[in-house]
Write a structure and sequence with these properties.
mainly alpha; 4 helices; 36% helix; globular; binds iron/sulfur cluster
Length: 124
């Protein structure tokens, strides 16, 4: 885990992304999706660092997907530091963020609250 890369504007975990060998995270301008990322554009326009800092209940762009949406909800509720703490602990316990391409253990949920509980406890 590259904790210093933190969480992307949308909520994805740059710190655990399999592409972080060549991408220094969302704020580095190196993400290959940067130019077309709606969350990146919108959050910059609104002057917030992340979508979870925005007061709108929004499912635009990557927030239409359960993983960044739930990660963002978690960060809004408990803070980004706590999210990183949980992700770090879970990784040490064998939970893999990108196990198969961009699919991993956090992608096995279709309910945001269940995913948040998994992040918190490391248990399904
Ligand atoms: S590819 Fe996207 S999610 Fe992965 S490290 Fe880069 S900015 Fe973060
Ligand atoms: S409106 Fe949506 S995309 Fe824009 S900053 Fe807020 S949460 Fe992010």
């Amino acid at each position: 885990m590259k904790r210093e890369l933190g969480i992307a504007r949308c909520g994805l975990a740059c710190c655990l992304c399999s592409e972080n060998a060549t991408c220094d995270g969302c704020s580095s301008e190196q993400c290959h999706d940067a130019a077309r990322c709606e969350n990146r554009r919108c959050s910059k326009e609104k002057g917030v660092g992340h979508c979870y800092e925005c007061c709108e209940d929004c499912r635009k762009g990557l927030l239409s997907k359960i993983k960044p949406y739930a990660f963002g909800l978690f960060a809004r509720r408990y803070g980004e530091d706590e999210l990183l703490n949980c992700l770090e602990r879970n990784e040490k316990q064998g939970i893999v963020y990108h196990r198969n391409g961009v699919f991993g253990d956090y992608d096995e949920f279709d309910d945001a609250e269940q995913l948040i509980s998994f992040i918190r406890t490391g248990k399904r």
